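Lecture notes, unit on protein representations.

Consider one protein chain, 71 amino acids long.
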Amino acid sequence: MVKKGLFLFVVLVGLLAVPQPARAQEDACATSLLDCYEKAAKIDSFWYRWAGGLDCELRFTSCVRRAVLGR
């Protein structure tokens, strides 16, 4: 019983320790997304502004993918 509890504790600590670097990168991705949206919002043309926002979302998706997968 004690061995099982100790094993579970070690597994949980290991799982909690793994995502921290990715989480920091994801926060940086969110900050970059907000900065990109701000730049896109300043564009005068509706269609260029819309395309700029779409580009921001694609960059955000790529950034999160790299943070999670490490590629």
